[in-house]
Structure formats: structure tokens, C-alpha cells
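Protein data:
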Amino acid sequence: MKAPARRFQLSDWYGEDWDHKTRDDDPWVSPWAKAHYKLRQQEIEIEQCEFLLKSAIDREDYDEADGLTERADRLRSQHPIIPREQRLEEALKDENYVLAGVFQQDLDAVKSNLGLPKYDVGQAVVHQHRDGLRGIVIDVDLQCVRGRAWVEAAGCLERGCALGYSAEETVLSELKGWVAQPFYTIMPDLTDQLNATAAKHGLWKWAWPAELATWSTHNRDELPAPLYIPEEYLLHDPNDDTPPSHPQIETYFEGYDSSPHRGRTYRPAPKLRLWQQQRAAEQQDLSRRRTSFSVSSKNPYDMMK
């Protein structure tokens, strides 16, 4: 294994004449969001190849299986993250920690260059300031996509919780910078949240502020809504002895991997990918309608009106 010769650049994807300062025809989509979307689509295509590969092997169609294997390998090699993570894992396995440090720096530089968030879909996380609030990432936004009312309600609560003062003392102008960071949709851990009485009547205890919910839950037999949390308040969940518990984990994930420094990372199932695509389409449509009123705004907080 050799150390990388140079950093990955966005021009590797978009061409040498690509300029991130040039505004696209769609002003509400940043080049970082486009990079993130392209990564997601590439990963979905890899997963589709793997699914078709299993089907081809079951049918004993080995010619098709060989073609799908070659295609999946090519897609992985073109991915800016996967090969670097594999090299890092190999270096750690060989206990070559000096080279592993170089690979880690290269991987961090690539993610930073792409504007990628710190946590991936499937990562088990825990809230820094709210005891017992933990769960699994099921979707990622490069910046907050909720409306202004939600930002003011949840933002004041979260900043107050982190800084140790009441929500009423939060200065609203501080929220302009707060929304300009990755936000995560979290499937909450429901361990010990359902007692016998609640189970009998289908009522769930809600241990966290309702303002953090991604949507309202109307029917009493529905599960609590996922939570919407900014990156600065999340950490990798190191508790592998008591994994997150939720009735839909097996629906949206297919097993997990575990490591000492990242904890559990669950593998997304096709149903979760379909839900993400549907949500992305809804968010894009919402963004179009918002920017029709405020095309000149550069801060997401200013567009949430």
C-alpha cells in the first residue's frame, strides 16, 4: 500500500474547468449538495448490483454474475470514499499505524472537500447533552431544511441545553449560523420508553422535547417520529452492549458492523433507500417553492419564512 499522491478534487468528477463559485441554473442546490447526491446515487447503484448478483448466483447464471461483479468493483473503485476506507482498514489490520494516519488524513480531506457530513446513514449516535437520547441515522441533510418556526423553537431549546441557559435567553440571530451545518434524521432508541400500560393502549412515552420531532404523530398507535438533530450535538455511540431498540430497525437495515472508535454502523436496506429518495424529492420541491420568494438569500435561515 502506498500513500496517496494527491488530494481528491471535485474537478475529478466535474472536469478541470469546473468552478464551484459559478451559480447553477438551480440556485437552491449547492455544489456540495450535488456531490452528496451523486455519492448517494452511486452507492445505491452498487447496492443494486449486489442484489442482482445474488439473484444471478441463485439462478446459476454465472456469466451475468461475472459481469455484475466487474461492474460493482468498477463502481467501488470510482467512489471517492470506499477505496480510501478500505485502505485505512487494511493498514489498521496490518498494525501499520503510521500509514493508517496518512490514510485517515486523506479520507478526512476528501470528505471535507466534498462537504460531506461527519456521520453516515446507519451510524449509531448519542446526543451530547440529553441523557438517554440515542438512535440510528436514517437520513442526512447538508444544512437544516426545516421551516423558520421549527428553527426558532428547536434551535432555542438545543442551544440553551448545550450552553446551560433557558431557551428564552437564546438570541435569534445566533440561529443563522446554527442552521448552516449538517442535520440528521435519527430513528430514536426506544429502550425502556414503552411501559406495560402504554403498550396496552399503544401509547409511547416521549422523553424528549416534541420540537425535535421531524413530523407530528397523530394516531396513538403510531411510533414516535424520528428526531432532527444538528451535527454539533452528536457523538458516535460507543455502547455496543446495549444496542438501540426500535421496531423498524430490521425493516430499514440489514445487519450492522461494529468498531471500537465508531460503535455500530447499520447497513441500509433497499426500503430505507427508497424512503430517502422520496424524502429528497419532497425537500427539493419545497426548496423550489421557497426560493421562488427569496432567490437572492444566501443563508438558509433567511429562506425559512
